[in-house]
């Protein structure tokens, strides 16, 4: 029996990946590292500081900065990102998500959030979706970020459900690994080849249908 659906945020509920990209691109320009959209794909689901480390490696600058400087750079990126997400509204909810949340709630199944983003609460509020979530796992106090299962396990614990009775939904390969390691049923949204470890994949959020997901889980 499905006890809970646990959602990733960026790339599943709304498409903030582009804003993350614009913010990293701005920082990259300041420190002489060119970041393109293809490279940005590799940052999906990865924490802020891990993303910065990857960017520095890309520019062969991984040994050029102190931890304090790295923190300053991450804060600089985040300030710009936060200014970009100010303008998000309910119109930015991805297709099919509101219907899915409504059906899950109507069926008395719990809903959790397992995002790597420390801005998740702000984004959910701007989308006007907070009321659907029974528990929002806090990335700020999560020890190991995706692909570790910690944030999904934190969500299951907060919801008081058994992980094996949860469906996790993710757009990033690191997130699918996290769901699988948490022993949840993994559903991927996006490219089948990138998400090849997911138990079930759809190519867009509008194909996330409640009845089909419940059936898959119960087979
Ligand atoms: P922040 P998700 C992730 O969110 C993003 O995919 C990733 O690109 C970002 O670096 C990470 O959140 C941290 O975000 O800088 O706002 O704390 O996909 O796990 O919802
Ligand atoms: Mg994501």
UniProtKB/TrEMBL annotation:
Pfam families: Hydrolase (PF00702). It is an enzyme of class 5 (isomerase). Keywords: Carbohydrate metabolism, Isomerase, Magnesium, Metal-binding, Phosphoprotein. InterPro entries: B-phosphoglucomutase_hydrolase, Beta-PGM, Beta-PGM-like, HAD-like_sf, HAD-SF_hydro_IA, HAD_sf, PGP-like_dom2. It catalyses: beta-D-glucose 1-phosphate = beta-D-glucose 6-phosphate. GO terms for molecular function: beta-phosphoglucomutase activity. CDD domains: HAD_BPGM (cd02598). This is Beta-phosphoglucomutase. Its cofactor is Mg(2+). The keyword GTP-binding does not apply. It comes from Romboutsia sedimentorum. Belongs to the HAD-like hydrolase superfamily. CbbY/CbbZ/Gph/YieH family. It comes from the Bacteria.
């Amino acid at each position: 029996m499905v006890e809970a659906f646990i959602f990733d945020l960026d790339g599943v509920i709304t498409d903030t990946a582009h804003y993350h990209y614009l913010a990293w691109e701005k920082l990259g320009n300041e420190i002489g590292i060119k970041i393109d959209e293809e490279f940005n794909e590799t940052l999906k689901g990865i924490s802020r500081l891990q993303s910065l480390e990857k960017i520095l490696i890309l520019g062969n600058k991984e040994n050029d900065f102190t931890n304090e400087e790295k923190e300053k750079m991450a804060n600089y990126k985040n300030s710009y990102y936060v200014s970009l997400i100010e303008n998000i509204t309910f119109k930015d909810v991805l297709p099919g998500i509101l219907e899915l949340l409504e059906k899950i709630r109507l069926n008395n199944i719990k809903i959790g959030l397992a995002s790597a983003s420390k801005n998740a609460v702000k984004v959910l509020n701007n989308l006007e979706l907070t009321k659907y979530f029974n528990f929002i796992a806090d990335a700020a106090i999560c020890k190991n970020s995706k692909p570790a299962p910690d944030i999904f396990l934190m969500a299951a614990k907060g919801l008081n459900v058994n992980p094996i009775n949860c469906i996790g939904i993710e757009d990033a390969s690191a997130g699918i690994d996290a769901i699988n390691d948490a022993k949840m049923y993994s559903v991927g949204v996006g490219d089948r080849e990138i998400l090849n470890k997911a138990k079930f994949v759809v190519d867009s959020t509008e194909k996330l249908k409640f009845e089909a997901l419940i059936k898959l889980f119960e087979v």
